[in-house]
Design a protein that fits this description.
single chain; alpha+beta; 3-stranded antiparallel beta sheet
């Protein structure tokens, strides 16, 4: 048995939670031990509509960014805007490395930012003396971010982007409703 049990779709039958199909019953047999107790955590799946809504308003917001932002690396595409906003709002992973000297730190930052950007699609790196700090955006994929955290991140980046556009968040959110 592995430490991480994959989500197994279950259905309440009035007496017990039961796998929804023979396939999932076999998966449950592999994952669980008869007689053991397991905590049940209900995590509601997020809808495709809310996911698509976010990408719709971000695309429209990106298209209306003020000229002053057009030269910024995070303003190159709507996806880079989204990923930068995730980092700015705290939905990120951070790596901090002491590399011994400022000159080395500058080289390491460039190399790590390039590698992380290839992997995550976007990365930010800074150097303070001999210390390199790299931020990468947290994935918003349904597999890695549940409905609640997705909604929290969606609201946070909505507010951050609305501030960049100098519009109320509600106005920005409406941009995606016609999609």
């Amino acid at each position: 048995m592995t430490d991480r049990i994959p989500p197994i779709p279950m259905q309440w039958d009035g007496e017990a939670m039961r796998p929804v199909s023979p396939y999932w019953a076999r998966e449950a047999d592999k994952a669980y031990v008869i007689g053991e107790s397991y905590p049940l955590l209900v995590e509601h799946e997020r809808s495709t509509a809310t996911h698509n809504h976010q990408f719709a308003w971000i695309g429209k917001a990106w298209a209306t960014l003020p000229e002053e932002y057009r030269g910024q690396p995070w303003a190159e595409t709507s996806d880079k805007l989204r990923k930068h906003a995730l980092i700015a709002c705290g939905y990120n992973q951070t790596s901090i490395i002491d590399v011994g000297s400022n000159a080395s730190a500058l080289r390491v930052r460039d190399a790590l930012c390039s590698a992380e950007a290839r992997y995550h699609g976007y990365a930010i790196g800074t150097v303070r003396g001999r210390v390199v700090q790299i931020w990468t955006p947290e994935s918003q994929s349904p597999r890695t971010m549940g409905a609640k955290r997705f909604q929290e991140s969606k609201q946070a980046i909505l507010e951050w982007i609305a501030d960049k556009l100098s519009v109320p968040p509600a106005d920005l959110q409406c941009m995606g409703e016609a999609a």
